[in-house]
Amino acid sequence: MSGIKESSNSSFSLKDAGFTRELSRDPALTGKVEPARVSFTSRNKYKLITAKGEKWATLTGSLRREGKVPLVGDWVAVDTGANPAIRALLKRKNLLKRGAAGGRKREGEAVPMQNIAANIDKIFILCGLDRDYNPPRIARYTVLSELCGATPIVILNKADLCDEARAREEEIKGLLPSVEVKALSAAEGDVGWIKGQINPGETICLLGSSGAGKSTLINALIGGEAQKTAAVSEALGKGRHTTTHRELFILPSGGIIIDNPGMREITLPDEALEDAEVFSIIDELARGCKFRDCKHVSEPGCSVLDAVQAGEIAREALENYRKLKGQEQ
Predict the structure, then answer these.
(1) Which one of 120, 210, 229, 310 is at 20 to 30 Å from 292 when CA atoms are compared?
(2) 236-262: string of b/e by CB count within 10 Å (b at 16+)?
């Protein structure tokens, strides 16, 4: 269920699904086709949200041969008649991707890519404040978000299970000073702050490990059981995979959210390493720091911060450096 209103309810419009005036001008929307948004994909069929409700469609052979395969979040031009087929992909705003799991490159080889979703405004990075808590992983998620061009927001879930919730919130704020961070408990219905981060027409992509509480959050936002949830093993602190596919939901209060299966491995794409020359300079400067384990945050005698203050190193480059160094921990 995408959470959209039935076609008989005239109050629903494609604007509720994120349709914009710019998309309406796409040249692919000519002839006997209509715009639709992909909410779910299977091997050969695509579940679409149209102005009249939901419907299933296939993909034309020509698009498949060209490798133009729709993702959840994509806008497409689809036939209006019986047995509808997707005729074209509308222009994407952006694309969220990661290095394929297990795809860490050898020397000189590119990381194989996995496309995740399209047309995203914000990415909610969900991390449980139980045994799922992992600052380096959170940092890698923010790198993926920024490469996509979406705004990352970190949600530290299960605050009711952690006595150090506020301390961990401050830790992540220190690691990622330009990113919004909030500790809360979705299971306790503490979602008012999250709703305030979602504007009408905005598309949110939800990322996090299995067991971080993504399905619980989706259900709390929708006000029903859109996604199944499962208990987390108390012995291992690991979540069972309850979300096995990507799916887009329209929220009653406005906005759109895309749920994703949990990610055990986050391999960064090659674009994340484009600042390698600047990073090597920071590595060299770090040798002059007063403390051997300096994090280059606010420590006295930090040569790297001195270089930032002097305008020799961009603060943004330092933030990216710290995120990528987190991957090595």
Answers:
(1) 310
(2) eebbeebbeebbbbbbeeebbbbbbeb
DSSP-derived pairing of the beta strands 203-208 and 151-157: unpaired
Among 225, 259, 293, the domain boundary falls at 259
**Count of other CB atoms within 10 angstroms of residue 36:** 29
Are residues 319 and 199 both part of a single domain?
no
Which pLDDT score is estimated for 316?
A: 78
Give the tokens for residue 98. Answer: 């990661």
- Residue with more model confidence, 174 or 69: 69
Q: pLDDT per residue over 224-264, tens digit each?
A: 665 554 444 333 344 444 556 899 999 998 899 999 987 76
Cβ-Cβ contacts under 8 Å for 233 (sequence gap 6 or more):
240
- Parent domain of 302: 275-326
Of 215, 235, 259, the position where a domain reaches its end is 259
Q: How many domains does the chain have?
A: 3
- What element of type H or E holds 219? helix 214-222
